[in-house]
Amino acid sequence: xxxxxxxxxxxxxxxxxxxxxxxxxxxxxxxxxxxxxxxxxxxxxxxxxxxxxxxxxxxxxxxxxxxxxxxxxxxxxxxxxxxxxxxxxxxxxxxxxxxxxxxxxxxxxxxxxxxxxxxxxxxxxxxxxxxxxxxxxxxxxxxxxxxxxxxxx
Length: 153
Fold this sequence. Notes:
The protein has about 150 residues and is of the alpha+beta class. It contains 2 helices and 4 strands, in the order αβββαβ. The protein has helices at about 10-65, 135-140; strands at about 70-75, 95-100, 105-120, 140-145. A hairpin with a 5-residue loop joins β2 (about 95-100) and β3. The radius of gyration is 32 Å and the shape is elongated. The termini are far apart.
């Protein structure tokens, strides 16, 4: 008997094996790409959060440095006559007396600036936060209150 001679090309089995290997390689590359994207997204979000935190601490630090008087209050002080904004040992207030200068650099008056850490659940305006029950019970926010100039309405 004569054996069949091969004239060229690939057999069906060889093509199927090559396609299977190509599918496995593509699946591995896609998995690697997705994990890289997830890491990149988390890293960018963390960098934005750290940048925001740096901005806030810089702002509060500038206010404290410019203050003529600084006081930490843990009891006996209520903001805007609201019981939900009373200063406690769990949520103390930082009171600053900040000088307000005129264009010539002369201190004309002082403004009371109050910073208070509060639970995120205290934020009642729905436009200021996204609904998240975990964050409401685990995250604090920083409120800033300023005394109003009695000469303005």
